[in-house]
Amino acid sequence: MNRRIFPLLAAAVVLGLVGHSLASAQTSGGSTYSSLNIGDLQPTTSVAGQGLAGVESAMPMPGNLNSLNPAGWADLRSVTLAAGMNFQQYQVSTASQSLYQNSTRLQGFSIGFPFSEKHGITAAMLFRPYSTVNYRSQLTQRVPIAGTDTALSTITKQGSGGVSQAVIGSSFKPIEQLTVGAGLDWYFGAIESRSNVAFDNTSLNPATYLSSDQYRGIGGRFGIQFRPVEGLQLGATMQTSATLNRVRFLINNYLDASGQVVDTTRTDTTDITVPQRLTVGLSYRMGRSILGTEFSTQGWGNDVLATATSATHYGLAYQYTASESINAEGFDRWTFRAGASYEDTYYLTPNGAISQLGFSLGVGFPLAAYNRLNANPAMDVALQFGTRGTTDNGLTREAFGKLSVELSLSELWFVKVRR
Q1: Using one digit for the tens of pLDDT, what is the confidence trace for 91-145?
Q2: 68: nearest Cα among 176, 169, 217, 190
Q3: What is the chain's Cα-based Rg?
Q4: In a 3-state reduction of DSSP, which class is residue 94?
Q5: What distance in Å separates the CA atoms of residue 18 and residue 11, rounded to the nearest whole number?
Q6: What's the pTM value of the predicted model, to 2 decimals?
Q7: Closest to 81 measured CA to CA, from 410, 416, 414
Q8: Which of 114, 156, 158, 161 is nearest to 139 (CA)?
Q9: 81, 168, 302, 395: most buried, per Cβ within 10 A?
Q10: How confident is the model at residue 323 (pLDDT cuts 50, 70, 90)?
């Protein structure tokens, strides 16, 4: 076994934990809807998958580590270490006004070790966001102060953080037509929400209300890919339900009538059930062209998350795969991707559920000439754009653009010596 396996594994662990901390620190603003529940869910985090509008469960991806289906890890041919970043731009609109918000965050880290191409055995570890929270809003309204009196105030709300996953598992190919995979999902993370209240009447003191949630939990995932005939591949992934323990710290900070700082703290503990998510898909390959489609469902909605409802996702994608010839040059070494998706999100507001329509473009290309003796760097880029929500009935419409970039290093390690 190559002696560099342990430094690379340690690097993946450290970078994954640091990446989660940096992602949680971003507060510049993003989706207003991420203030609900546990934030924006991230079923697909690989940049290759994002270029395919999230269609991953049945798509062949030999140069990338599948972030959804562990059975897809069997496609990996070289030891691969990857890290990604994401930039998001939102236009958040109401019936009367709109504003722009943006954020940049680390997208995740992954490392895969293909031990046997014949048996499809690949061990993998991923650090990935499960949900992200990043919002900032401001409104002016009258609030009660004493008895029936009210006062005009400016309320600034902001939140950051999210729930992350550390995934470790393996794939296996018992027969040529069938690949299976399984992984253990460890949930962890923190979400912080803050509200600052300032009054136009300077005789009234400002106040700050802070909520800090810590999450921990364990779940799992199982995947399968089946090739009944040449070119056709079926895929399915089931992420098990998981119980997240949430420890909430509530802090209220304000000035009393004499100008003294009053700081109260309370701690609440509760459990949140993350329901199982089922994803099924298929792809068909014609030469270097691959057409894929996917459907997923997740039955959110419980007493703890009163603003959650069942979610569904539909996706359609196309991929033009790079040539496998060692003599390929130029654009023949590039992979091109495109996709479209429709989603009934798990966001439930008093005025209705929120749906989303999205489109994506992606490309993957090597950064150097292929060399089987050294690390081969490559880059994947994905552009996503779409809209969700509406300005009707007092709701918010969001138009978004997301640019994701992932760098990877791959190298052949486990190669049998022919005698």
Answers
A1: 888 877 888 888 888 888 999 999 988 899 999 999 999 999 988 887 787 777 7
A2: 169
A3: 23
A4: coil
A5: 10
A6: 0.86
A7: 410
A8: 156
A9: 81
A10: confident
